[in-house]
UniProtKB/TrEMBL annotation:
<feature type="compositionally biased region" description="Basic and acidic residues">
    <location>
        <begin position="569"/>
        <end position="579"/>
    </location>
</feature>
<feature type="transmembrane region" description="Helical">
    <location>
        <begin position="61"/>
        <end position="86"/>
    </location>
</feature>
<protein>
    <recommendedName>
        <fullName>STAS domain-containing protein</fullName>
    </recommendedName>
</protein>
<keyword id="KW-0812">Transmembrane</keyword>
<keyword id="KW-0472">Membrane</keyword>
<feature type="transmembrane region" description="Helical">
    <location>
        <begin position="368"/>
        <end position="390"/>
    </location>
</feature>
<dbReference type="Pfam" id="PF01740">
    <property type="entry name" value="STAS"/>
</dbReference>
<dbReference type="InterPro" id="IPR002645">
    <property type="entry name" value="STAS_dom"/>
</dbReference>
<dbReference type="GO" id="GO:0016020">
    <property type="term" value="C:membrane"/>
</dbReference>
<dbReference type="GO" id="GO:0008271">
    <property type="term" value="F:secondary active sulfate transmembrane transporter activity"/>
</dbReference>
<dbReference type="InterPro" id="IPR018045">
    <property type="entry name" value="S04_transporter_CS"/>
</dbReference>
<feature type="transmembrane region" description="Helical">
    <location>
        <begin position="190"/>
        <end position="214"/>
    </location>
</feature>
<feature type="transmembrane region" description="Helical">
    <location>
        <begin position="282"/>
        <end position="301"/>
    </location>
</feature>
<feature type="transmembrane region" description="Helical">
    <location>
        <begin position="165"/>
        <end position="184"/>
    </location>
</feature>
<feature type="transmembrane region" description="Helical">
    <location>
        <begin position="461"/>
        <end position="489"/>
    </location>
</feature>
<dbReference type="InterPro" id="IPR011547">
    <property type="entry name" value="SLC26A/SulP_dom"/>
</dbReference>
<feature type="transmembrane region" description="Helical">
    <location>
        <begin position="327"/>
        <end position="347"/>
    </location>
</feature>
Length: 686
């Protein structure tokens, strides 16, 4: 009985809600206040190297940082040259990109381990924009694949610009615009958006883009001189072009590609299998580049067999140049998707390695860092960068402790830029394509994980498959967009599919669980308890009411309609028979059965929030059940839900709906049972 049990009573703390004007004023004052201490803190937050460099432990960290920096630099050089092909740029620009990004992230990044540089998916996106703008500007590709001429569209702006010059102008402009987007997102403190890009979405996008990258490199393996396909379905168009040109395969390039694959694939696997025993991965890519360059040079592959080679790679640095402002309106949308992908990959890797090694990264500062890694290098003929998983794993496994290793990597790249770069003149492009394809193994292995993903979570697996298929078969940007929409729809759909479940009590304990999930639970006389496992808001409030009415056995709308029909029938009967009345109508019982409870309890523990529509739905439910003699009680409401109920006018003493807060379902049940003595019967007839 209610009197024999002491309900849980909690005293609420007083809340003083400040006016919005006061809150905004205080935050604005905090942001805009200026003092030496504030300036110093802002400088340390903006340039994190000033925090950790004075605390650098030379004896413990220097050797690992130097070793990892040198190894990553050696591995990065051939990859930078290779990925320049993917971005539709000359090899020298890939080296520039890796060099500048390493230096800038060292000063501005908060992660100790990630390696920022060229990433294949971003190179693909940049390359698609570059090829599109080259075609718009009038560059044409002849049957042999040679790009010639500049149309009249851009002659007035870049009169002396050849194909290579215009390609890097487009690439650097895209990079500048993407960097501006990223810095603006950092200023607006929207680093939290990364949480909305799920792992399944990013993995599916990367795998789909990897298929496109793989397909785009096949023409170099076969020595075919084909233009890059544009628009939707580029992967299918590329395969059609490849199959139609197989008779033009360059046997020299094909043999070189097969030999490189036979060397790199097994040696990469050996590096991964014995990475715990090796102090550093063996740079087989560098060995292959050196060997094939020497073979191509002394074998005269270009002159005798027509093999495409890297060509002249200048030493030193070119003078800086401004982005092409006139191009920004045309590439702004492309740059936005590139900015989002680059930031999401960087933050995901940063947080993953920070969690592994026990430190914290700042997502907003990462936004600034990767933004300036794009803005500043864009003036020095570079293209878009982000964190790269493969090189980050190499850094971690070779003893990296801080971003000082990135400075060492930059010194290795500087040596290559100043001295070694011209020696890669005879390096075949098919070798660079092989390097790209071999590095895609990790993304392509995700196909083997699909059955496991499907067993673990079909929703995530569905998002992965949709994003991957759209990115590969239709369009990479559309794949990302559909993946985001699918993820958001799945979250929304889960709140739409929530059910109202009846609860039962376990013995004499205050434990109430779903009757359909556990055995041995008991229902209570006169009281029915239900749990709704989702927030109640505008999108699902109708489904909440339908589910509740269905499970309680009462649909007030249908019952009102039934009553009206019976009343009309009663009147018609009276008109025909005068004073004679229908027994069913005169009894006042409009249902052939009675509800077995007079108190309905809703466990609101899973209800994280209510909006205006949710409060209105609860008011309607309460009114409907009160009409048929059933009292509605809410239990285990969190403070946010209680505040919403109060602001929405759910509690109204003038109408008799006084505020009753039950912190446990047991308290609500005992209160409901205490009404038995007042009603005298547990059945509610109407």
């Amino acid at each position: 009985h209610w009197d024999l049990h002491v309900p849980l009573i909690l005293e609420e703390r007083g809340k003083e809600e400040e006016p919005l004007k006061v809150v905004l004023g205080r935050k604005l004052k905090k942001r805009c206040s200026w003092s030496p201490a504030r300036a110093a803190a802002l400088l340390l937050d903006s340039v994190p190297i000033l925090k950790w460099l004075p605390q650098y432990r030379i004896k413990d960290w220097l050797l690992g940082d130097v070793m990892s920096g040198v190894i990553v630099g050696i591995l990065l050089a051939p990859q930078s040259i290779a990925y320049s092909l993917l971005a539709a740029q000359d090899p020298i620009y890939g080296l520039y990109t890796s060099f500048f990004s390493c230096i800038i992230y060292t000063f501005m990044g908060t992660s100790r381990h990630i390696s920022v540089g060229i990433f294949g998916v971003l190179c693909l996106l940049v390359g698609q924009v570059v090829e599109r703008e080259l075609a718009v500007a009038g560059y044409v590709t002849d049957v042999q694949g040679n790009r010639t001429g500049l149309g009249s569209l851009e002659n007035g702006t870049f009169p002396d610009c050849d194909r290579s010059c215009y390609a890097i102008i487009v690439g650097s402009t895209v990079t500048f615009t993407a960097g501006v987007y990223q810095v603006l997102m950092g200023l607006l403190q929207v680093g939290f958006v990364s949480v909305f890009l799920s792992d399944s979405l990013l993995s599916g996008f990367a795998t789909g883009a990897s298929l496109t990258i793989l397909t785009s490199q096949l023409k170099y393996l076969l020595g075919l001189k084909l233009p890059r396909t544009q628009g939707w379905g580029s992967l299918i168009k590329t395969w059609i072009g490849l199959l139609g040109s197989l008779d033009q395969t360059n046997m020299c390039d094909l043999i070189t590609s097969v030999l490189c694959l036979l060397v790199l694939v097994p040696t990469k696997e050996l590096n991964e299998r014995f990475k715990s025993k090796l102090k550093a991965p063996i740079p087989f890519e560098l060995f292959v580049v050196i060997a094939t360059t020497l073979a191509s040079h002394f074998g005269h592959f270009k002159e005798q067999y027509g093999s495409e080679v890297s060509g002249h790679i200048p030493t030193g640095f070119m003078p800086p140049q401004l982005p092409a402002w006139s191009l920004i309106p045309r590439i702004a949308l492309d740059a936005f998707s590139i900015a989002i992908v680059g930031f999401a990959i960087t933050v995901s890797l940063s947080e993953m390695f920070a969690k592994k090694h026990g430190y914290v990264v700042d997502p907003n500062q990462e936004m600034y860092a990767i933004g300036f890694c794009n803005i500043i290098p864009s003036f020095f003929r570079c293209f878009v960068t982000s964190a790269a998983l493969t090189k980050t794993l190499v850094k971690e496994s070779t003893g990296c402790q801080t971003q000082l290793s990135s400075l060492v990597t930059a010194l290795v790249l500087l040596l290559i830029l100043l001295v070694i770069a011209p020696f890669f003149y005879s390096l075949q492009k098919c070798v660079l394509a092989v390097i790209i394809m071999v590095n895609l193994r990790g993304a392509l292995r995700k196909f083997c994980d699909v059955p496991r993903m499907w067993r673990a979570n079909r929703v995530d697996a569905g998002v992965w498959l949709l994003t991957m298929a759209t990115s590969a078969l239709v369009n990479t940007e559309l794949g990302l967009l559909l993946g985001v929409l699918a993820s958001a729809f799945c979250v929304l759909a889960r709140t739409q599919r929530a059910q109202t479940l009846q609860l039962g009590q376990s013995g004499d304990r205050d434990v109430f669980k779903e009757l359909t999930a556990y055995k041995g639970l008991q229902t209570l006389p006169g009281v029915a308890a239900f749990r709704y496992e989702a927030p109640i808001y505008y999108a699902n409030q109708t489904l909440f009411k339908k589910s509740l009415y269905r499970n309680t056995g009462l649909d007030p709308v249908k019952e009102r309609a039934r009553r009206k029909r019976l009343e009309r029938g009663k009147k018609q009967e009276e008109e025909r028979k005068g004073a004679e009345q229908s027994p069913e109508a005169s009894s006042g019982n409009f249902l052939p059965h009675a509800l077995p409870f007079h108190t309905l309890i809703i466990d609101c523990g899973p209800v994280l929030f209510l909006d205006t529509a949710g409060v209105a739905a609860l008011k309607e439910v309460r009114k409907d059940f009160q009409e048929f003699g059933v009292q509605l009680l809410l239990a285990q409401c969190n403070t946010s839900t209680i505040d919403s109920l109060r602001r929405g006018g759910y509690y109204d003493p003038e109408t008799g709906n006084v505020e009753r807060i039950f912190h446990t379902v047991g308290d609500a049940v005992r209160y409901g049972q205490s009404l038995l003595s007042q009603n005298g019967d547990c059945d509610t007839s109407f």
